[in-house]
Amino acid sequence: MLAINLDFVCIYVSQILDNRYSQSRDGPATYILDGGSIMLGSMTKEGGAMKRVSRASLTTATSIVAIFAATSAFADQNVANTSQKGSLLVWPLITVDQTKGASGDTLVELSNDANARVHVECEYVNERKGRVNFDFELSGKGTASWDVLTQNGDHVTPPPFPTNTGNPKFHGNPYRGELVCFATNEGRQYQVPWNELTGTGTVMALNDQSAAEPKQAFKYNAWAFCARNDSGCAPDDNNFAQGTPGDLELTGGGAGTYDACPAYNIANFMPNGAKLGNVETLNNNLAVASCNQDLRETYLLHLTKLDFTVWNSHEQSFTGAYACVDSVESLVLGNQKPMVQGTNFDYTTLQTPNARFQVNGISATPPCKFPTEPTGVLSVIHSATAISKDKGSDADVGNTVNGTGFEAGFVYWDVSP
Questions:
Q1: Which residue range forms the structural domain that includes residue 183?
Q2: Number of structural domains the chain divides into
Q3: Can you give the pTM of this predicted structure?
Q4: Cis bond leading into 168, ω under 30°?
């Protein structure tokens, strides 16, 4: 027997084969494929009784179940997202870039929704693999926030963002990177289940002289991973080791693991140079953190090929755009290194004012000149936007993208002895 439980889903199947009806007791709508037939019902608001059931052929039933199965893949509750609380948070875009006319800064906010306190371990990693870790206590219902550039903090005194080059090193901007935070015990000997953490990042341009509006900002939600047990998200326990100390398993697989990663990200965007009504997009940018994260002092590189497929609004697809990157990278979605065939994001190529893309991390050597591996991805897209025919950017508009699919990953960190 194959059963699919869909709470409060209303589906009406009428005049299918023999049109026989029956009643069911109160409860969630359950659709059962058994012996070549399917039972379909609808839930009412008055007490939840299933009022109507029809029988369909095996062919019809299989088709409907296949649709439900495909839909449920997009709604998996063991994959990280940006709307839930979690025990592990990832900010893919942190910037303090003040070079070449840039004026970047980031405000980080992190909250604990539980009534009890929890210890939090955090680590910055820049695009050249320089890194620094820090930790602090969050009280029950407490929150902490800090300005990354100035290090001014509320309830936390953060270190400077690292701008050194790590060993082994990788190309990139040392003034941009990521932030990873997760719950641990007070002694930092192991990570713990504490699915109460949420976070945001506010990315700022403090004085962009190339823009029509020099001061700009946008806010995005951190990606959140639930710590899991065999029943789902694990109960909070700041004295319980969640898996092997120093190894956060992003597999969504049950006890001792965390949510898995999205296998790929999707986003709607206005192509570079496109205009529609009062809006023109000048350029698009994507910050990506992979789900193969080695935060240890003695670390290994985990490289991947970010592979893009772009569709215009006529549903024409454009392939060939890619970038060979490490575990954190900010990309201009255009004709700028390390992006290859970035013109796929331009209006001159797509010829429609709206488009969408898909990106996933794959193993591909060549064209990458170093060993690569598949990985889930966590992204933030932001776009320089001109309003009402202004010549420069009026706003940098950004948000996290949508994730879908399932990909395992990991976060390694150095525990205290």
A1: 88-245
A2: 3
A3: 0.83
A4: yes
